[in-house]
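re: that chain from earlier
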Amino acid sequence: MTGQELLVIIIVGGIAGALADYFVEGLSLGIIGAILAGILGAFIGAWLFATLGITVGSGIVGAIITAFVGALILLLIIRALR
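^ sequence. v structure.
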């Protein structure tokens, strides 16, 4: 993995995590937590969309949408467990 790929993962994770943190009330993650939630959400979203046969598109916008949905699910689960 190159430095550029790592930077894209962090940026996509940060955007998706910040969006998910904004929509899920009752949690305040901070920037590091939002990035981590977005990165984990990307894995969850990619697995979920592949399992359901859903394609969002390619490119950065598709990656952000997929990571956002996954991060949203992750944060809703965390909020329910609290």
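Residues 44 and 62 are 14 Å apart (CA to CA).
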